[in-house]
Amino acid sequence: MKEGKLVCLGIESTAHTLGIGVVDSSGRVLANELATYRPTDSGIHPREAAQHHAHAAPEVLRRALVKSVSSADEIDVVAFASGPGLGPCLRTGATLARAIALKLGRPLASVNHGVAHIEIGKLATGFRDPVVLYVAGGNTLVTTFSEGRYRILGETLDIAAGNCLDAFGIEAGIGPMPAPEIWAAKGQKYIPMPMRVKGMDVSFSGALTRASTLLREGARVEDVALSLTEAVYSMLTEVLERAVAMTGKKEVMVVGGLARSRRLTEMVRDMVKLHGAEHRGIPDELLGDNGAMIAWTGLLMFRAGQVVSVEESHVRPRYRIDEVEVTWLGPSRS
Amino acid sequence: MVGPFEELRVIYVGAEAVVKLVEWRGLKLVAKVRVPKPYRRPEVDQQVRSERTIREARAMIRAKRAGVPCPAVIHLELSTSTIYMQYVEGESLRAVLASGAEDFSEIANGLGTAMALLHSTGLYHGDLVPANVIVQEGMTYLIDFGLAGRSDDVEEHAIDYHLLERSLTAGFPLIASKFMEKVREGYGSVLGDAAVSGLLRRVEEIRARGRYVERGEHQV
């Protein structure tokens, strides 16, 4: 044993990114390596992405190991993201995880990707019981811990916020995020957008349709980008605010790729002041999809005895965060 | 001139609005003021506040006409995004459940009935959570129509149901399913069992969306 510290290797492969991270039980990120699939045209092709991950895996794994340990034997647990995500991509990561676990004779932890975003965010911020906005290309939800699970307080009723902005950027010919936000900074005029907020749920398809219509009608791309980003971020900040008001919790964090947005961060910071709450940022490399977050969550699960056998290590493309029994935390402190 | 409204006390400070108890010509009223949000651009803020104030007043008037238990609109002041309405005394459903009330059958049934009346007139509430239901001597009043709208589409009605169930599951996991069973009974007593099953089917559909759905080649 290495001074009693446990070491976990985690594999992320839910979508574009193959990430392999190594984390120890003191919360130190020893390695966080990744390779990102960039589609030649607009969309992500699950099978191509999976092939990319399979291709990149040996090199990413080698880099992660070299940076973190002197021998692979030092790894105590192997974790993988079992969902939600694209089936072929998930299977690639799971296969790699099983192979490593079998080779080293170590247990496997099956990690929910969304929960991992939250847990690594808590590690980075030091927050214990935050209200969380999780916004990315494929996910948009507001959640907080209560009665043994991360409960979904609100989510998108149609497309994810990141998906909305990416789709707009691609249609406008400027490319996906962060391009829409960069162009928005040059916008001069706000054109009213449909802002659909229902309780703590949001809907972005109306705003996306309006943005497309405006583009076709010849509106300035900068103005449409400004209007769409302002509308989308206002909706997100509003539902987060509702969650803060409802729970009375004082810690607020935003996780997922879209949390890198400066404008969204600015709005959230302005919002939390109204409620005497605190927002803390998370380093970029821990915001996007990464292996360290899977490793850290896998470690927490392992310590709570939440491991799976190779036979049980299925992937779950539609794995919701509220399906996860959170055994590694005590009862809610709210 | 309508005024003066004399402010008695602040009832509730919400995420979106401040609700105050005011007195007007000896009558107690509720004033709901939508407050500006500094995090939004001023144009966005103005748009959101006035759109919602008008929509809310309109929905309340329609709901009242359809027999939905809800406060009556007395006066509208757009310059400050304020609605003056009837004061319904009572406790919020959230407070009632939080205090550990065990006999909630009548309340849940009444809530289902109110919801069905609302839907039958082509309205949806848009924020149907326990905090937005007032219980007064066993009667359930719907309040906060800020996100309400008009639609005969079962989609919007299903979202009402979905929101209510999810917020009960999040806040009161132990009684949520029993409570919702009674809500369905009340709903069915107004609109029939076919409407209930139609609603539930759409709820399932909604839940299957809004997640990381594998969409073949075009997941951006």
Give a description of the structure:
The complex is a heterodimer of chains A (334) and B (220). Chain A is α/β, with parallel strands linked by helices and 334 residues long. Chain A folds into 2 domains: 150 residues, Nucleotidyltransferase, domain 5 (2-Layer Sandwich); 152 residues, Nucleotidyltransferase, domain 5, CATH 3.30.420.40. Chain A is built from 10 helices and 12 strands. The radius of gyration of chain A is 20 Å and the shape is globular. Chain B has 220 residues and is of the alpha+beta class. Chain B has 2 domains: 81 residues, Phosphorylase Kinase, domain 1, CATH 3.30.200; 118 residues, Transferase(Phosphotransferase), domain 1 (Orthogonal Bundle). Helix content of chain B is 44%, strand content 22%. Chain B is built from 6 helices and 10 strands, in the order βββαβββααββββααα. Chain B has a 5-stranded antiparallel beta sheet with strand order 1-2-3-5-4, covered by helices on one side. Chain B has a 3-stranded antiparallel beta sheet with strand order 6-8-9. In chain B, strands 7-10 form a two-stranded antiparallel ribbon. The longest helix of chain B is centred in the N-terminal third of the chain and has 24 residues. Chain B is globular and about 50 Å long. The C terminus of chain B is likely disordered. At the A-B interface, strand 8, helix 4, helix 7 and helix 8 of A face helix 1 and helix 4 of B.
What's the architecture of the largest domain in chain B, going by CATH?
Orthogonal Bundle
CATH level-4 homologous superfamily of the largest domain in chain A: ATPase, nucleotide binding domain
In the sheet with the most strands of chain B, the strands line up as 1-2-3-5-4
Could you give the order of strands across the largest sheet of chain A?
Answer: 3-2-1-4-5
Structural class of chain B: alpha+beta
Question: Which fold name corresponds to the CATH topology of the largest domain in chain A?
Answer: Nucleotidyltransferase, domain 5
Fraction of residues in H or I helices of chain A? 40-55%
Largest sheet of chain B: 5 strands, antiparallel
Distance between the termini of chain B: 56 Å
Number of strands of chain A: 12
Structure annotation, total helices of chain B = 6
- Structurally, how many domains make up the residues of chain B? 2
Extract low-pLDDT stretches of chain A: none
Series of H and E elements of chain B:
EEEHEEEHHEEEEHHH
Integer average pLDDT of chain B: 89
Give the strand content of chain A.
15-25%
The description of the largest β-sheet of chain A is: 5 strands, mixed
